[in-house]
Amino acid sequence: MKKTFLFLLLLLALFSGISATAQQFKFGVETGATLNRPPYSDLKAGVSFGAKVEMTLPQLGKGWYAETAVGLRQQRWNYRRLVTTAVVGAKPGLSVRESDPCYLYVPLRIGRKFDLATNVRLYAKAGAYFGYGLFGKTRHTSQPIDGSERMFFTETKVFGDSEASLARYQEQQEWGTSLQMGVELCRRFQIGLGYDHAFSDFQKMLELNNRLYTLSVSYLF
């Protein structure tokens, strides 16, 4: 918690310093898809959408800029393990946990745009991000592997308050690094691919962290 708070303060300080020296601002909207694959998880797809702002940084040279955004995005994941205790009765079974948490997402990146042709520019940017879990469901299913029909199923909120349930199975605060590259058309439309790697674990007991591949489509006003 303390590391996450300090990281957020650092992002705010960097944003304040960058915005104070920026000479031009562009606002826009973006949407896209996410593919999350934490350790031991299958590749799970989600969606994202939000608003963003770009700030030119002529002090660094031609094409340099900073970017921040506020958005919501799904960071879905699952976890499978074989259990041999009475969790699924007296028989060995497969325990599967699936979650579809939705996070508030705030990145801060610095990048550069390169002229490729008339009205076509390539861009690359890197930085950091902060996430805060808002809502979502966790589903836990256990079933014997001998094919019998006996099954246990529970569903609860991902970010609840009751530690007696599965509510604290996933941490709310998250921070990490963010990389993106893509193409900009007519100085309005952007199509990008990215990768976000969380340095904080969303599940400390299993040491699981989010690793997201992103596809984004943006429009600048």
Please explain how this structure is put together.
The protein is mainly beta. It has one domain: Porin, CATH 2.40.160.20. Helices cover 9% and strands 58% of the residues. The strands form two sheets. The chain has an eight-stranded antiparallel beta barrel. Strands 4-5-8-9 form a four-stranded antiparallel beta sheet, with no helix packed on it. Strand 2 and strand 3 form a beta hairpin. The longest helix has 20 residues, at 2-21. Residues 162-167 have low confidence and may be disordered.
Write the layout of secondary structure elements.
Elements lengths: L1 H20 L3 E12 L7 E13 L7 E11 L2 E7 L9 E7 L2 E16 L2 E16 L1 E8 L7 E6 L15 E13 L3 E10 L12 E10 L1
Antiparallel strand pairs: 1-2, 1-12, 2-3, 3-6, 4-5, 5-8, 6-7, 7-10, 8-9, 10-11, 11-12
What is the radius of gyration computed over CA atoms, rounded to a whole number of angstroms? Answer: 21 Å
Question: Can you tell me the overall shape?
Answer: elongated
**Tally of DSSP β-strands:** 12
Q: Cα distance, first to last residue? A: 37 Å
The share of residues in extended strands comes to over 45%
Read across the widest sheet, the strand sequence of neighbours is 1-2-3-6-7-10-11-12
Identify low-pLDDT runs.
162-167
Number of domains: 1
Average of pLDDT: 83
Helix content, binned percent: under 10%
How many distinct helices?
1
Text of the CATH class = Mainly Beta
Order of helices and strands: HEEEEEEEEEEEE
**CATH fold type:** Porin
Assign the CATH architecture: Beta Barrel
- Largest sheet, if any? 8 strands, antiparallel, barrel
Helix/strand-derived class?
A: mainly beta
